[in-house]
Each structure stands twice: as C-alpha cells, then as structure tokens.
Write a structure and sequence with these properties.
By secondary structure, the protein is α/β, with parallel strands linked by helices. 29% of the residues lie in helices and 22% in strands. The protein contains 16 helices and 29 strands. The chain is globular. The structure holds 3-[(carboxymethyl)sulfanyl]pyridine-2-carboxylic acid and manganese (II) ion (MN). The site of 3-[(carboxymethyl)sulfanyl]pyridine-2-carboxylic acid has 11 residues, from helix 7.
C-alpha cells in the first residue's frame, strides 16, 4: 500500500468515528491560507489587525477556559504505568481509548475535518519527520501553516521514509471536563479533544516534537529536547552553536533572538530555533541539532522593543495573535509592551479594559509567526544536516541560590545538573505560578516516557558523542534581598555566552567549587555595562545552605524513580553533597 493510502485509511477511520460533514485535505499553499483566513474573518474566529502597522496580522480570542496547556489533563498511555514513569499522568491505552473515543464519537458532526500532512524539520533532512493532524479547527490549521511545513513537502518526505505520526484533534465542546491530551508512544499516536489552544491542539509541537519524539529518540538513539538553538558569531565571523533548555515562558525566545550589547565588538546572535531541538550524532561523533519547527509560538506579555526588538520586527507582519488586548485602531497590545494601556483598549476577553481589572492581555497570550521572518535567522536554520552543538545550557528562573553561570565538571556531572534542575513555575501551564519544582532538563511536562530511562539515555548519548558539548547552568533571575534582579539580562546575557564560548575553547578563567566551575567576577566581560561589584559578587556566590537544601530536594525527586534512576546520578549527588559539606 502506498503511504498516501495508509494516510487515507487512517483519515477514513477517524472520519467514521467523528462523522464530519466534509473532509478537506490541506495543500499548504498561500492561497489556501488566505482563503482560511477569509473564512475565519467572516465567522468572527479572527479579527483583522491594522493593515498599515500590522499587515497580514489577526487576533484570535480563545475560549476563556482554554488559555494554556493543561498538564493535569495530559496523559502518557503506555502499556505499563512504570513505562510512563512517576512524573507523567498515565492511563492504559485500552482505558484511554474506551473513555475518549466516546467523546470523539460524532464530535465533528456539522463541521469540516481538515487533514494536515506536515513535516517537522527542514525539507530534505534525514532527521525530519512527518505528522498528519486531522482537526475540526480552522484556527489550528492556520497555526500549523505557520509552525510547520504543510502539504507537498510532507507527502514527499513520507514516500521516502514510510512513517508518520497520526494526530486526531477535535474541539469537542471545549469543556475542561471533557478535555484530554493523550499520547500513545508505543503506537506513535496522539489524541486531543476539548481544547483549541497552543500546546494542546497544535499537535506538531509539544505532543509530537517532544512527547512522541522523545520516546522515538530513546528507541532510535537521538534526542528530542525542549531547547532553543542559537549561533554565537564572534569577531572573526566564526559561529559557535549552543542549545539551551529552559522551562516554559522563561525567556527562550528572548535568548534565541538576543541583540547583543557586545555587537560593537563583533559578538552577535543568529537564531536557529526558540523552543525545540532534535539532536543527532554525526559521522564524526559530533552532536548536531535541527529545529523541527518552522515558526515561533511565543509569549506576548513582556515582549517589547527593549526586551526583544527582533521578535517585535518578526511579529509585525503575517502573524496570528491569540488572547492579546486590542487598541481602538486595531493594534495588538499587552502588558510589558513598553507603552501605557491606551484609551479605549479592549481586553483579551473582548471587554472594555478597566485599569482596576486584571490584565488586559492574558499572561499566556501568544504570537504565531513564521521563523523565516526573523531578521537574524541563521543562514543554516534549515540546513538538512543541522548545526554542530558545542555547548548545552540548562537555565531556569531561580530568585535565590543558583549563580549566574557555572560549568559542569563532565558530561555525567552535567546530566546530574540538568536532571536536578529546580525552576519557578510560570503561566505557560495552568496551576500555581512562582513555586519551585524540579523540572529535569526543562522536560518535566514533555518527556514521553519514564524520566529515569530518559536520564540513562542522556548518559548513554554522552558515551557515544566523541566531541562532547560542554554543559553549563545559567540563571538570569537571581534577586537581591530587596527582591530586585541582580543581573540586567536580555542583551547583556551575551557576556555570559562569551564566557561559555571561552570555556568551550578551553580558555576562560573559572574556580572549582562544590557545584562546578564558577567564573570569578573578573573573568566575565563586564566592560561598558553598569553593574555594582557587590551585585556581581553575589551573582557568582555559592549559597552553601541553599545548595544543601537543594540536594535534599533532589534526593526526594530522584527517589521517585526507584531503580530506574541511573546509579551514576546518585554518585554525582553524593559527590556534590560531600563537596558542599567540606567547604
Ligand atoms: O500555552 C500553550 O499551549 C503554549 S505552551 C508553549 C508554547 C510555545 C513554546 N513553549 C511552550 C511551553 O509551554 O513550553
Ligand atoms: Mn516551550
């Protein structure tokens, strides 16, 4: 059977269950996108934005109860609970299908089913993979057009690779009681119902490119990670590529698009990706990364000409905004955009904005924009071979304890550092904000299998990579006793990346500490920036008591994995505690 027929067979099966009135196969063409936009403008799904200042841009307001990923309704449906591990919600495939097929039954009656064949990764790359999403949401189709490569490219890749990940999506009735995001990694299948928002509904992103792909990567000897990819260009013109894992809404897009404050010295950033990296080992034993996505689905609040001028230039045309506020002259507006809320502002719910009210834009409001519009997109962002990775960076929001930057002693120590990473929670998922939880490698919500096995996979990959990237931890978010950020962040983060680059080259001064190699204040290039020497000292200081408490938390977190946690990580844990106790 041809691959097209296999896809058709699965689409027929899905249609028998959901009973759409019509089935439409997406081609991915510009005309198709324009016609979908036209339909959504007509039925009110989209509002056109100011054609002069935001050409080709639209606003969508999601259902007010459907504004973020819902981790509590997200399940990994492996045959055994142990294979999903203690950090995932689990349902058996049988129970999941019985329960949720009832919700899919007739869910597309009166609606059109859109079939979206899409490619994750550059055209022609041996590392790219095909997904087919069927959905009854045109908003999802339009976003998939921006975030992936839809149509022909996917079908051609499919004929060569004979493998696709099917994803069945329906808005259902949008009720959280009947909302489920289900992953069946063993059969590489996704079912999502009851949400039309972001990570729950654009199945190529978190569902495929992370949860299903991490499972495939474990089986096949590669890695699917929640990482941005950037190139750091130095004065000679040489570019060094780094991949950095940060939890949701912790500034990955800002870092990936940073305007360096050392540009006058010749240090600048080139963007490869802002959220997901697929990493393979090449023939020479180097780790290479591709960005599986074709667009950015970034958090709007906090994005401004000051914090991310490149994003502002990326998203002022051909962009879909979701849940931002609307000015009277139809421009998008959000908190942290750098201007006061204008008179006559309409909030994300479509109500007149009152200053006394909560936020005008939802804290998890988003923009969806094509990556090719990014003014500093790397010329290699679609290189089929990927880009060679020299440094892996783990970062998270920590207002205390964790220094600005430090380096792991070895790959194994770096895996321990990533596996034990603590992070303050953000608005990207429903639940409390600002609470420290362990978020290993920033993959807690995205790992499609037992994280104990995931850590083992990291260790094994390290054994196979001949030219190992060096591993670092960063924290831009440390605060002083008055609650003020100690580090200015944004474009100044280039100074940290410059130190990382020096360390990659075998240079850069650093002291051995219980937690890793920490730069001395003098070894960071702070020339021309205003930072008090005491602030710099505090940023690089080791809070022994805080770290000891941290090792207790890590012990508890590691304990949940039982004998699936690699012994090497317990060894690193013991060594760190001993080093701390000795100081
Ligand atoms: O709220 C959502 O559904 C979006 S989540 C998201 C979107 C883009 C990049 N990262 C994330 C995330 O939660 O990590
Ligand atoms: Mn993310």
């Amino acid at each position: 059977m041809s691959m097209k027929s296999e896809v058709e067979q699965w689409v027929d099966e899905s249609a028998r269950l959901t009973k759409p009135d019509r089935i439409y196969w997406c081609t991915g063409s510009a005309e198709e996108y324009a016609s979908f936009i036209g339909s959504m403008l007509k039925d009110g799904t989209l509002i056109a934005l100011n054609e002069k200042t935001y050409p080709g841009c639209y606003l969508h307001r999601s259902h007010p109860n459907d504004v973020a990923r819902t981790e509590n309704l997200t399940f990994i449906c492996t045959k055994t609970k142990d294979d999903a591990g203690p950090t995932n919600n689990w349902m058996s495939p049988k129970e999941a299908k019985e329960k949720v097929s009832k919700l899919f039954n007739d869910s597309m009656k009166g609606r059109t089913m859109y079939v979206i064949p899409y490619l994750m990764g550059p055209v022609g790359s041996p590392f790219s993979k095909v997904g087919v999403e069927v959905t009854d949401s045109l908003y999802v189709v339009a976003n998939m057009h921006l975030m992936t490569r839809v149509g022909e490219a996917a079908m051609e890749h499919l004929e060569k690779t004979h493998e696709f990940v099917p994803g069945l999506h329906s808005l259902g009735d949008l009720s959280p009681e009947r909302r489920f995001i289900l992953h069946f990694p063993e059969e590489k299948l996704i079912w999502s119902i009851g949400s039309g928002y972001g990570g729950n509904a654009l199945l190529g992103k978190k569902c495929f490119a992370l949860r299903i792909a991490s499972f495939m990567a474990h089986q096949q000897g590669w890695m699917a990670e929640h990482m941005l990819i950037l190139g750091l260009q130095e004065p000679t013109g040489h570019v060094t590529y780094m991949a950095a894992a940060f939890p949701s809404a912790s500034g990955k897009t800002n870092l990936a698009m940073m305007v360096s404050t050392l540009e006058h010295e010749g240090y600048k950033i080139l963007t490869v990706g802002d959220d997901i990296a697929w990493l393979h080992i090449d023939e020479e034993g180097r780790l290479r990364a591709i960005n599986p996505e074709a667009g950015f689905f970034g958090v709007a609040p906090g994005t401004s000409v000051k914090t991310n001028p490149i994003a502002m230039r990326t998203i002022n045309h051909n962009t879909i905004f979701t849940n931002v506020a609307l000015t009277p002259d139809h421009q998008p507006w959000w908190e942290g955009m750098g201007s006061f809320p204008p008179q006559g502002l309409t909030d994300w719910l479509g109500r007149p904005y009152a200053e006394s009210a909560e936020k005008a834009a939802h804290p998890n409001s988003r923009f969806t924009a094509p990556a090719k519009q990014c003014p500093i997109i790397s010329p290699h962002w679609e290189d089929p071979k990927g880009v060679p990775i020299s440094a892996i960076i783990f970062g998270s929001r920590r207002s205390a304890v964790v220094p600005l930057v430090f380096q792991a002693y070895s790959w194994q120590h770096g895996v321990f550092m990533g596996a034990g990473m603590g992070a303050e929670t953000t608005a990207a998922a429903t639940g409390a904000v600002g609470v420290v939880r362990r978020d290993p490698m920033a993959m807690l919500p995205f790992c499609g299998y037992n994280m104990g096995d995931y850590f083992r996979h990291w260790l094994e990959m390290g054994g196979r990579i001949r030219k190992q990237p060096k591993i670092f931890r960063v924290n831009w978010f440390r605060k002083d006793k008055d609650g003020k950020f100690l580090w200015p962040g944004y474009g100044e983060n280039i100074r940290v990346l410059k130190w990382i680059l020096e360390r990659v080259r075998g240079g850069g001064e650093a002291g051995e500490t219980p937690i890793g190699f920490v730069p001395s204040p003098a070894s960071l290039d702070t020339g021309g920036m205003s930072i008090a020497p005491e602030a710099l000292k505090e940023l690089l200081s080791i809070d022994k008591e805080g770290w000891l408490k941290g090792t207790d938390n890590i012990e508890e977190a590691f304990g949940q994995f039982g004998d699936r946690l690699p012994g090497e990580l317990w060894e690193e844990h013991k060594n760190m505690r001993q080093r701390l106790e000795k100081t």
